[in-house]
User: Fold this.
Amino acid sequence: MQSFKALQLGGPLTAAFTSGWRFDDPKLSKTVFGLRFKNPVGLAAGFDKDGVYYPLMAKLGFGSVELGTVTPRPQAGNPKPRLFRLPKDKALINRMGFNNAGVDALAKNIERHGRPDEMILGGNIGKNKDTPNSEATNDYLICLERLHALVDYFAVNVSSPNTPGLRSLQAKEPLTRLLSELQAKNAGFAQPRPILLKIAPDLSEGELDDIVAIAQDTKLAGLISTNTTIAREPLTTDAETVAQIGNGGLSGAPVLKRSTAVLNYLRKMLPVGFPIIGVGGITDGKSALQKVEAGADLVQVYSGLVYAGPTLPAQVNKAILTSMG
Assistant:
């Protein structure tokens, strides 16, 4: 993160560095859920919760950035330390807990920075930790309303393992109610935004079948597959070290197989053309192509940046372009 902060200072040096890192080609442009993406590689939610870094991400060649997860009120998140590297596995474990400056701060940052380089902006929305699940819908509605004029699409996050009880909102009844109310609010705007749902990789086939039904019943624009996992396999890092780290969501290379299997299952169960964003375990062009081959229309990266560095978007874009023939 320190290197990104240094580059954020801008100037000729930053331009010189980033121009060599990015890869652009008009053939990579595509339209998904009604939005035109200059390329299919996005930055996943969690990196830029408050809308501070996304202008730099545009310089690195990302076609989109998903901001957040943001909550109505600022919150500090879980106690530190809460982010742990597993270098042997090219993985991270985090229990951040939706630390963010609140939806008003994010909105003001977007208003200040604008839209660099035709970048698509997503708003990943959640609930405050102290908001009971019975009142969670209101938190999501507040975020949707505040950001509606500022972002291009919304991602509903009910799948983070780091807010107690949040994942229970993935159950059929509460999830249907939440998404239905968000869609009703969304329909009241002159230009409704695409609403997507981000799901966990730990769902059973029966639960995934429910997601497929809910996505169609509530007329979602797409799904994001997947968030971090609570599983701890497969890992090369010794079990004692992992146990000492404790709770949190595992991301990075070890998530690739499971998250891609979930993506593949969803693709088979959903109607032809239903958009899916593939995220989880992308560390290079080859792993990104696994997502595309499994049925992803777009891909997102985050943990892979820690290990592959800022050239990762270029690597992925080159691999996708080459696969297009």
